[in-house]
Each structure stands twice: as C-alpha cells, then as structure tokens.
Amino acid sequence: MLKCLNAKTIKWRGFTLAEVMVSIFIIVLMSGIIFANYRVGGRQFALQRSANKLAQDIRRTQQMAMGAVECPVANCCGVATQTIPPRYGVQFINSSPDYYSYIIFADCNDNGKYEPSSNVVETINFEGGVRISDLSIGDPPTSKTQLYITFKPPDPTIDMRTPADETSTIARIQLINPNNQTKTITVNSAGLIEIQ
After folding, report:
1. Distances (CA, A) of 63 to 89, 144, 157
2. Are 114 and 91 in contact (CB under 8 A)?
3. How would you label 88-117 residue by residue, b for 16+ Cβ within 10 Å and e otherwise?
4. Secondary structure of the chain: what % helix, strand, coil (to 5)?
5. Residue range 6-31: average pLDDT?
6. Contact indicator for 119, 109 with CB cutoff of 8 Å
C-alpha cells in the first residue's frame, strides 16, 4: 500500500503547462491593474499636495505680513537696505501659461495688487500637471482671470481683489489635474483657508 501512495505522489508532482499559463496571466493582469491605479493615484496625490502647498503658502504670506518680516529680495521697494513692505500678497492668474504657478510678492505701493513695481518674493509651480482652472470672488462666485490676496499689518487686514479693483470677502481658487479631478481652496476675510 505504501508503494501505491508513493507512486501517486510522484505522478502529481509538477504543474501542467495550462496551470503555469493561467498563473502567469493572473500575475500580469494584477500587475497591470495595480500599475494603472498607481498612475491615477499619483496624479490624485499631486493635486492634493498642490492644494495643501497653496494653502500653506497663503498662510506663510499672511505670517510674513503679520510678523513684519523684512523683504528677502535685494533692493526691495527701491530701498538698498532691508525694509518691511506695507503688505505681502499672493497673485493668481487663470490664463496660459501662468496658471501653472502663483507668485508671492511684496506690495511696495500698498494698493493690494501685484504690479511691475512689486517685488517677487517667490514663484511657486504646481506639480504633476496641476493648474488653476478657475478663480472667483464673491458670493455667489464670479469668475475672474486674475486674483490678488494681500495681507496688511498691524490689524490683520485681508484684501481679495482683481486688477479692476473689485473686492470681496471671499475668494476661491480651483485646481485641476490631467484626470479632471478638482480641489477648491476657499479664503475668507477672516483668514480662514479651507480645502474642499
């Protein structure tokens, strides 16, 4: 009887060609699904990181203004020595090619807008194909092509305006990635920043 069992186990030791092919097909199929979702997930994470970075940079600009930080740019506001500008702000543009980035600036003439006389503190690019898809101010929202958010000390004065001097108490910046997924960053006049 023992001899009979050994003969059976020896007979069924290997895999058939069909079993090997099915196993390889399943592994390739699962790898393809995981790789496809990885790329989609990477774009989704790039959008989330860009939205969080934007909110963080708006807060950083606010802290620079409220903390009366000296301008980090040489010859800021036309003064050779280090100076504290009246305001710091962030400029957003919703037109090509500028909608892939935003600018943190020192508002030297205290008008709440970015102008050539303003000093660019930093230009930040969005990552992974993320761009601005809509800028709006007001409630109900009105779409605009440019938007400035500036912060003025000592009282935390927050201005949200357009080049045409339209002002509002609320601003929305909508980001979009190549998969048409969106994130909206809302800033209100109290300085509250919300990501949706």
Report:
1. 11, 26, 12
2. yes
3. bbbbbbbeeebbeebbbbbbbeebbbbeee
4. 35, 30, 35
5. 79
6. no
Q: What is the pLDDT of residue 30?
A: 87
Tally the residues of the chain: 196
Q: Tell me the CATH class for 37-195.
A: alpha beta
The CA distance from 109 to 52, in Å, is: 30
Higher-pLDDT residue of 135 and 116 is 135
Residue identified by tokens 């058939």 is: 16
| Alpha-carbon distances, residue 124 vs 68, 130, 131, 173 (angstroms) | 22, 12, 12, 15
Tell me the mean pLDDT in the region 191-196.
90
Say which DSSP state 128 is in.
T
Q: Which helix (H) or strand (E) holds 59?
A: helix 17-66
Q: What is the pLDDT of residues 74-113, one digit of tens each?
A: 888 878 778 889 999 999 998 888 889 999 999 988 888 8
Domain ranges of the chain: 37-195
Q: CA angle, 65 as apex, 64 and 70 as ends, to 5°?
A: 65
